[in-house]
Amino acid sequence: MTVEIPSQLITALRDANRIVFLTGAGVSAESGIPTFRDALTGLWERYDPEQLASADAFRRDRELVWGWYEWRRMRVLKAQPNGAHRAIVEFASKVPSVSVITQNVDDLHERAGCENVIHLHGRLDRPICFACRRPHELPTGIPEEPEGGRRLAPPRCEYCGGYVRPGVVWFGESLCESEWTAAADACRKCDVLFSVGTSSLVQPAASLPVTAARRRATVVQINLGPTSLDVLAHFNLVGPAGVILPALYDAVWGASK
Ligand code: BV8
Ligand code: ZN
pLDDT digits over 5-21, tens only? Predict the structure, then answer.
């Protein structure tokens, strides 16, 4: 696919000192990770993600919820970063300050070489105890989960015997204060904010591009389809992030590796 890149965007990127990448599930899609709203197949296909990604769901049926997260964790462990993750790392080698703020709970940005990723919604690989919130060490290796998944009994906390839960922020739970503060601060200071592969539905993450735009940042959306951000973004690039981001890098700094 040929990517049309407006010359004003190339200029804005060349002049930028601070760039923020706000990423969602679409940035991991080309690594084979189902997007958040597509991650409901097999056993879970009759559920709404907001139903499963909540503390109530875990209280109601911890084996169903733990099984869903272990299936997703297995998918992440079997996946590799894609061109979008790698292009963001290359941007960071050219621009004085690049902040990666992700809604994703996978570690593909880190595995591509990004440092200090801000995880607004936590991480799959950092489970905690539901009762005392102490971290729980998962066994190494890749859990062998059948396609479509299965119910699984969550491990027990070695300190208090409580049930271990995924280390993610569920709907109705507050975001980690320090992560949110760092994210909002980066968006207030940036010259360019990319919103990549997110339906821009989930709050308060979806308010970050508004914060950046209020401070006169150039807002660039890269997505497969329209979202509520279309009206605010200065540039809407429609297509796969794994194609558009490397093309953007090439247009500004010459052929990416
Ligand atoms: C909170 C972790 C309050 C779990 C997730 C206003 C203010 C504050 C809260 C609210 C509010 N209004 C409503 C709320 C409540 C709620 C909310 O936002 N609900 C929405 C649905 C209306 N928010 C909360 O509950 C938040 N908590 O604010 O607490 C509070 C305050 C004080 C005291 C107590 C409480 C917590 C929200 C966090 C929820 N957890 N994830 C898990 O992963 O299982 S959110 C979940 O959605 C994922 O993290 C996911 O990343 C995120 C957003 O989804 P997307 O990443 O956008 O993925 P999606 O599938 O939707 O879209 C993918 C996009 O990519 C699509 O557009 C597609 O076209 C595109 N795409 C696909 N392939 C590609 C691509 N694009 C480019 N290239 C491709 N190849
Ligand atoms: Zn405990």
Answer: 999 999 999 999 999 99
Q: Give the whole-angstrom CA distance, residue 147 versus residue 118.
A: 30
The tokens describing 21, both together, are 């990448």
- Can you read off the two tokens belonging to residue 197? 């592969």
Ligand 1 neighbour 47 (Cβ under 6 A): no
Q: Does an H or E element contain 249, and which?
A: helix 241-253
* DSSP-derived secondary structure letter, 215: T
Residue 91: predicted pLDDT? 98
- Cα 156 to ligand 2 centroid, rounded to whole Å: 8
Substitution site in 88, 174, 203 for ligand 1 pocket (most atoms within 8 Å of beta carbon): 203
Q: Is 121 a catalytic residue?
A: yes
**Residue 140, exposed/middle/buried by CB under 10 A (0-12, 13-18, 19+)?**
exposed
Is 7's C-beta closer than 6 angstroms to any atom of ligand 1? Answer: no
Q: Which of 35-44, 141-150, 193-202 has the lowest mean pLDDT?
A: 35-44
Give 51: exposed, middle or buried? Use CB within 10 Å, 0-12, 13-18, 19+.
middle
Place of tokens 């790392």: 89
d(CA 29, CA 16) in angstroms, rounded, equals 28
Please list, residue by residue across 149-173, b when 16 or more beta carbons sit within 10 angstroms of its beta carbon and e when fewer do. Answer: beebebbebeeeebbbbbbbbbeee
